[in-house]
Amino acid sequence: MNKFIVMSSSARFTDFWIDARIQIIKNGDIPYSIYSDWRNRADYKELKFLLDKSYQDVIRLYADELLVGNFEGYIGESTQAEMEVARQKGIPIKYFYPIGVENDKA
User: Fold this and answer.
1) pTM of the full predicted structure?
2) Treating both helix axes as pointing N-terminal to C-terminal, what angle do 44-62 and 77-89 enclose, rounded to 10 degrees?
3) Which sequence spans correspond to the domains of the chain?
4) Which of 35, 49, 96, 97 suits a disulfide with 103, CB 3.0-4.6 Å?
């Protein structure tokens, strides 16, 4: 059965999800992500709140797995909150890079 995999990371790393999304599809699973860098918009705070809520709702309702983009070792507040939702629901959390391994987005 196909897994519904929610992909989570900072908006500043959106380009790095392209290959991951393709690999998830090739594995027969379903990737979910909304990646857009909205940080320069005047209504950013409102959009960020809505995006955060939307992601948490999707994790609660549909996720079989949460894939965390821990690029450069960074896991932001929104991603941490999404991880907590996954933990509360017993949803497995996987990381793009193994924890403790140095990586560079370049």
Assistant:
1) 0.87
2) 20
3) 4-95
4) 97
